[in-house]
Amino acid sequence: MKSDIVCKDQLSKEGLTFEIGDAMNMKYEANSFDVVICSQVYEHVPDAAMLMQEMFRVLKPGGAIYFSAGNRLMFNEPHYNLPLLSVLPRPLAHLYLKMSGRGDHYYEKHFTYWGLKRLVRAFEVIDYTPLILSKPEKYKTEYMVKPGSNKQKIAAFISKYMIWLVPGYIWILKNPDHI
């Protein structure tokens, strides 16, 4: 794959490797990794629960998963830049995508906040979302949320009082059995 070649050519460092594989059937032994990164992936796989089981399996005792995920209840669906696409029933989402000329089939399967919480229920969840939105400069996210802006103030408020409405989440997942 081209992305694998680009990563190997441009990001090569000692001790760092890039591989392409099936996230729902990894070739690694159980307890192989200290850290697993799952950034905006769950909505792209056929079975998100199987993805979580595999990450749980390959995570070493004491390890953690960086998990960032979009919320189904987002206003603008980022893959197609279409308002409300992710909240529509599947048949209507397919039709909306076709009518917009941006595709034939809506493959992404976003979960709501509560669906995501069910998905990661085997883990202890440390939610960084409110922290990042309240202090974007500390977490180097000023490019997305300008500190002191109305957008930042509204986002911080929503993440504190209506977390289920935030368009995306950043969580650290730990296995309670591994702590």
TrEMBL record:
Location of the Methyltransferase type domain: 7-67
Pfam family, one: Methyltransf_11
SUPFAM superfamilies xref list: S-adenosyl-L-methionine-dependent methyltransferases (SSF53335)
GO molecular function: S-adenosylmethionine-dependent methyltransferase activity
GO biological process: one example: methylation
Keyword Protease: no
InterPro entries documented for this protein: Erg6_SMT_methyltransf, Methyltransf_11, SAM-dependent_MTases_sf
Alphabetized UniProt keyword annotations: Membrane, Methyltransferase, Transferase, Transmembrane, Transmembrane helix
TM regions (residue ranges): 154-173
Superkingdom, natural source: Bacteria
Name recorded for this polypeptide: Methyltransferase domain-containing protein
